[in-house]
Amino acid sequence: MRNSAFLPLLIGVAVLPAACTWVNPSPSGDSVRVAYDGNVSGCRDAGTVGVSVTDKVAFYHRSELKVRDELETLARNEAATLPADTIKALDEPKDGAQHFRAYVCGRTILRERGAVREATPPPPPGDTQTFPAKEHR
Fold it and tell me: Does the reported pTM lie above 0.90?
């Protein structure tokens, strides 16, 4: 009879590690920018990314902030495989899932229908000129 008192505790200890997940950014996902302000002007669409994580285990609801952070990290990792260098959330997280739009905003190689091409090559050295934004007096 004494062992039956410890059964709920044993189950709780077994379930607790399942409630904690850690999503690490990949080296390429670490360089993907999140457009929190939504500004993706001048960027090209690279596709949609859908990600999901566990938001509750049994009756335990995980921290909303932790779930959001893990969704963003997963989306950045996934966007890097497209490849894209920027993501923007399309909706709010719901039941541990969220959708993001991926964009190419900088010098990233973009794959289109099997072909690889470079996005916006930089100007040749020595071809650029700079001008002051405002004349000083």
Answer: no
Beta bridge partners of residue 39, listed in sequence order? none
Task: At 38, list the tokens.
Answer: 């939504």
- As beta bridge partners, residue 103 has 45, 86
Domain count, the chain: 1
Specify the CATH number for the domain of residue 68: 3.30.1660
- pLDDT (tens digit per residue) in 68-108: 999 999 999 999 999 899 999 999 999 999 999 999 998 65
Q: What is the DSSP string of 78-134?
A: HHHTTT-SEEEESS--BTTEEEEEEEE-SS-EEEETTEEEESSPPPPTT------SS
Residue 116 belongs to domain spanning: 41-120
Kindly state whether residue 48 falls inside one of the protein's structural domains: yes
Quick one: CA dihedral 23, 25, 46, 91, positive or negative? Answer: positive
- The per-residue pLDDT for range 34-49, each reduced to its tens digit, is 999 999 999 999 999 9
Check residue 130 and give its pLDDT.
59
Distance between terminal CA atoms of the chain?
91
Q: Are strands 86-89 and 97-104 parallel, antiparallel or unpaired?
A: antiparallel
